[in-house]
Amino acid sequence: AILLGVAMISGTYVLTDQIQNGFDDIFTTAFKGTAVVVQPKVEFGDAEMAEATLPEALLDDVRAVDGVAEAIGNAEALGSVVVDGEAVATGGAPTLILSATPSSGQHVTVTSGGLPVESGQVAVDAGFAERQGLGLGDEFEVATRDGIVPVTVGGVFTFGESASLGGTIMVAAPLADVQRWYGLEGELTSIDVLAEAGVTPEQLAGRVAAALPGDVEVKTGEQAAADATAATSEEINSFLRPALLAFGGVAVFVGAFIIFNAFSITVAQRTREFALLRALGAGRRQVLTGVIVEALLMGVAASVTGLFAGLGVASGINRLFQAIGADIPRGGLTLEPRTVIVALAVGIVSALAAALVPAWRATRVPPVAALQEGATLPPGRLARFTTPLAVVVAALAAGLVALGLVGSAATTTRLLEMGLGAMLGFIALAMVARHVVRPLARVLGWPLERLFGTSGRLARDNAARNPARTASTAAALMIGLGIVVFVAVFAQGLRTSFVDSLETANRADVVIMDSTMFTPLPAPAGERIRELDSVELAAGATTPQVQITTAGGRDSLTGMAAIDPDAFVEVWGFDWVGDVDDDILARLKGDGAVVEQEFAANRGIALGDTLEVTAQNGRTAEVRVVALYRDPMLFNSFTVGLGVLRTLDLPADPQLTLVNGAEGVTPEALRDGVTDVLAAYPAHTASTQAEYVDEMNAQVNQLLILLYALLAMSVTIALFGIVNTLVAVGLRAHARDRHAASHRHDAPPGAADGPLRERHHVGHR
User: Fold this and answer.
1) Which of 530, 643, 666, 706 is 20 to 30 A from 400 in CA distance terms?
2) pTM for the complete prediction?
3) What pairing do the DSSP bridges indicate for beta strands 139-144 and 80-83?
């Protein structure tokens, strides 16, 4: 039990450290040999995701700075690729289209061929080439703003020393090609600056910054790598690691029940042994110390073994991510000192804590018990307070769960409250479970007695004979199965909520989505779709990342939806709060905004409030809340009109497009027509509403597979606990029978339990 729990904790740290090391290597390699990096300045987030650019004319200004050996312009875009007519899925990882420049040789290691110099040639990362079976001279296609273009593989490279780039795809092409493909003519995404001999990166950064306008950001290459690494580390530490550690915590919690039960059984079975020690002069402290040392030794052995077993768990979790299409970049295997300390501390402390109560019980064995066969421990002085204490713990658990369900705190805080409440609820149930074991055993054991006769009756009686043992054994399995049921109910609720939301709100015949999550539908594609005879209306929703400041001065990063209200009202029906109808959307043509109800409650936003919206480019706009709606699934923040996008100087290419067919056109026929247009834009797919619901259900099922697999450790520990109890009871019964048999054989002839009677019984049997 302890070994498996510690393995889960250790494996979590090992895996997340691998991922962190992988990104460290990627960013260090990306800025290798670069003294200074010039990037567009953004208010928050990543310049690449913001699609921010620099004027290419800045290259001359940088080259004129004293101490600059060379300045190299780069262009980079998020795109997608097509191999054998199929868009390559990346499981959420980006496809990076990079410009190959003279400095690229510092950042990559070419394993075959070379970096591209001619238009139409590309170099690809080795992982992508291996997965798709691509070699020198092979052709595939790159999706651009104007459609797909054929390219030829002229080189294969590795990027850094990472064991894996995950699902990320890197395609390097000539600078002019990247600029033309993604509308970046005359623009760059960054400038690499090389220093002359004797000039430090810090000195050069200061000179370059003084020569450029204030809307650019100048960093040393080392600082740029450190900032990128820190941003990734923050994401890992704020979500992935806590989520996996939560499953490890569940495993340790279940394991603690098993340890408690194991020591409770062994202490009860060794009552005469402890009594004999007391009769020979051992004090209570010595008995307590003896049991505690046993727990300590077991905890140390299990923790050390679990620490190294975590290496296998890390590999298993990584394979789980790969199985659901979420391959993540990772570096070499590392065992950090922090991992060793935390894993050993968790294992040893949980073992000692679980064994403490049974050890304390062992000190209450009176010496006279050594003379009694079948002596049992006397009830503790605090036993009568168990039920009232369980009621208090249960009330506290219910309060925490209720607070998590209806509270207005951050999502992470609410989940923590519900998790702590569930844990206390399980403890309360375990405290009172022994009082219901006997009645339950009678009811549940009745069919067993009918089916299996004497064996069934013995099983029922044995379960009822020691209610505390049965209850604590069942408690571990109760926790594991309880969490599995919770996940199943949660997933079904999520699925039902999503389906109901779509069926209620979506009035469109066809939904167009970005399968890569990074590529909005280009404007030319939208125009071609609207020109189809089978299309009556197509309305899009653009979802940029913004920062909002409420009337109370509270800042929050979120996604914003921007729509054309006249068109969108035909394809989507908002679930309004209060006496409001779709006519309110006309207010979005000005500075109006409609806000999702839960989003507003969590941030203290009310009707009539003014919100300041800040884009990543630093531009701001003010919007006024004119209505609230319910939609926790899709449009789960706030929605504005396209005029706000223009004020913020943001592109209007949509991430979601909803299409209605002309009269007499079936959804399937409409989908087929739209799909023909999207053949030139393979990152996007068209689905009927039923197909879209099925796709979302498939994603929920993938999440369920991951959650069930992570919970399997806890259920396995619980099953080990049941086996442990059955084996302990069986061994104890076997030892007692052997002791009784030897006692009868040693009795004098003619005694009640003498050899003649023993032979009689044997013969009779």
Assistant:
1) 706
2) 0.74
3) antiparallel
